[in-house]
Design a protein that fits this description.
binds guanosine-5'-diphosphate, 32% helix, Rossmann fold, 195 residues, 7-stranded mixed β-sheet, alpha/beta
C-alpha cells in the first residue's frame, strides 16, 4: 500500500488549454458535489484539511493538483451535479473534465466516488459509462459507508452493481472517512496503478 508521508497543494487549472505536463503519474478523484471527496482525500493523505483548498472560492470549478511524496499527483476534479448551475457552466465543466481525462498520458487511474446512501445518480451513471467507453482504469468507491448498517450497505452494493457497468475485475469499495474503512484497500489500489 502507498504510505503517504507528504502532500502539498500545487496549483489549479480552470482552462482546458492550461494543463501542464509534469513528470509525475496521476490519480484523479471524481464524484458529485457533496459525495465526500474532500473527506476521502483528507483521510487518504492523513491530513485534516489538505482538500480545503479545493473548496476555496474560485477553486470549486477547477481541477486541483496535489503532489504526494514528491512522486505522484492526486488530482481533485470538480464535483458535478450542482443543482444551480447554468447550461453553459455545465458544458464548460464537461469540457474541462473530458479534456483532462482523455488528453493525458500521465493519468494512471480514476477513483470514482458514489454516495452509498443513494442509488447512483444519472450523472454517476454517465461518468461510469464515459470511463468505460474511453477505456480508462478506475476504482468505484461507495462513500460514507459508516452511515449504513451492514444490511443497508449490502443493499447499496447490490444496487450500485446493477446500475453501473464495471470493468471485469473491478470491485466496488465501501469507504468511510470517519472510520477509515477502505483506506488500506484504496491506497493499495493506487500503489498498484503507479508501479
Ligand atoms: P465533497 O463536496 O465531495 O468534497 O464532500 P465533503 O467531503 O465536504 O463531505 C460532504 C459532507 O459529508 C460533509 O458534511 C462530511 O462531513 C460528510 N462526510 C463525508 N464523508 C463522510 C464519511 O465517510 N462518513 C460520514 N459520516 N460523513 C461523511
Amino acid at each position: 500500500m502507498l504510505k503517504v508521508s507528504d502532500c502539498k497543494f500545487l496549483y489549479s487549472v480552470v482552462d482546458p488549454g492550461n494543463f501542464k505536463d509534469d513528470p509525475y503519474p496521476q490519480i484523479a478523484f471524481a464524484g458529485r458535489s457533496n459525495v465526500g471527496k474532500s473527506s476521502l482525500l483528507n483521510k487518504l493523505v492523513g491530513r485534516t484539511n489538505i482538500a480545503r483548498v479545493s473548496k476555496s472560492p474560485g477553486r470549486t470549478r477547477a481541477v486541483n493538483f496535489f503532489l504526494v511524496n514528491n512522486k505522484i499527483q492526486f488530482v481533485d476534479l470538480p464535483g458535478y451535479g450542482y443543482a444551480k448551475v447554468s447550461k453553459s457552466q455545465r458544458e464548460s465543466w464537461g469540457k474541462l473534465i473530458h479534456t483532462y481525462l482523455t488528453e493525458n498520458s500521465r493519468l494512471m487511474g480514476i477513483v470514482h466516488l458514489v454516495d452509498s446512501r443513494h442509488p447512483p445518480t444519472a450523472l454517476d451513471k454517465e461518468l461510469n459509462e464515459w470511463l468505460n467507453v474511453n477505456g480508462l482504469v478506475y476504482q468505484v468507491v461507495l462513500t460514507k459507508a459508516d452511515k449504513l448498517s451492514n444490511n443497508q450497505l449490502a443493499q447499496s452494493l447490490k444496487q450500485a452493481k446493477k446500475d453501473l457497468i464495471l470493468t471485469i475485475g473491478t470491485e466496488l469499495l465501501p469507504f468511510s472517512a470517519k472510520t477509515g474503512q477502505g483506506k488500506v484497500e484504496l491506497l493499495s489500489w493506487i500503489e498498484s496503478r503507479i508501479q
